Amino acid sequence: MLSHEDVLHWYPQGIRGFEGTPGSVIPRYLGNAKREWRIGETTDDTEMTVAVARSILTDRNVSHVSVGRELLHCTKCVHPRLKSLWEFHQAADPTRIARSHDGCGAAIRVAPVGIFFTSHRAEELLTGAREASVSTHGGSLAIAAAAATAAAVSAAIDGASPHDVLELAECAAAEAERRWRGHTAPAFADAVRTVHHNLHRLTALRAAEIAPLSFPNQPLTTVPLALGLATVIESAEEAILLAANIGGDSDSVASIAGGILGAMYPITVNEHWYTVVEQVNDHDLVAIANAMAQLRH
């Protein structure tokens, strides 16, 4: 959640990878009361994505009750300032359905839904995205963002072109907004188109130029920026570094864009980074991914 200027304050040369010894505390988090985040440690984005995957592997279906049960085991970033997750944990009820919250906390964890359903199963992708969202996020924008992300991941796995990935994401978002209307006019699909257009117009994709255009700090910039990067760049590694250097909700942008691009261009996933992540976190993500892939239909 650093501003772009603060990113440069801490990393004058920009973020180029793991800036320090993996497993050691990130310097700016030394003594942090909430959590001393470590270099190479995954955030709540990964923790909750794995939770959704485990719920699907258990049920062979996408059910908000099963997702809720797994999310209760997610402990990163559970504090009063993050109201969506805090209220869910305070209720301690896996059957709970949130009626509000429009942040990107649903979109960051919905990739397993996109793995589970092929891209021609639009209805299942839509309802699955909502089921994976509503434990913590019931707002129209949040569900639209989750639907768009699930559709994009699914299309990427199926080998769709960047143009088709973006189009399917926009269609899923528009249908979600039509079906689960909020208090304001539908806006998410339009935001995705606008951000993509702005990125496409740039002669070069640099953090300093993107930050003023689409700084990821609210629902209509964070996921649209991730989807934009995923459809104008052809490298998961490049998108992840760019997201980190832009600042704002960088882990959300990086995880969504990186996931989509990793599916489209697997060779661009940095194997060294992945090795470090496994050493620090012991997630065994390959085993989870292989199990999920076997369920794809």
What is the topology?
Layout: H1 4-10, H2 44-59, H3 64-71, H4 83-91, H5 111-116, H6 122-133, H7 140-157, H8 162-179, H9 188-201, H10 207-213, H11 222-232, H12 236-246, H13 250-264, H14 271-281, H15 285-295
Helix pairs in contact: 2-3, 2-15, 3-6, 6-7, 7-8, 7-13, 8-9, 8-11, 9-11, 10-12, 11-13, 12-13
Please describe what this structure looks like.
It is globular and about 45 Å long. The protein has 15 helices and no strands. It has helices at 4-10, 44-59, 64-71, 83-91, 111-116, 122-133, 140-157, 162-179, 188-201, 207-213, 222-232, 236-246, 250-264, 271-281, 285-295. It is mainly α and 297 residues long.
Keywords:
single chain; mainly alpha; globular; 15 helices; 297 residues
Distance between the termini: 37 Å
The rough form would be described as globular
Question: What is the CA-based Rg, rounded?
Answer: 18 Å
Low-pLDDT segments: none
Helical residues, percent: 55-70%
Helical segment tally? 15
> Average pLDDT, to the nearest integer?
96
Order of helices and strands: HHHHHHHHHHHHHHH
Main β sheet profile = none
How would you classify the helix and strand content by structural class?
A: mainly alpha
The fraction of residues assigned to DSSP E strands is: under 5%
Number of strands: 0
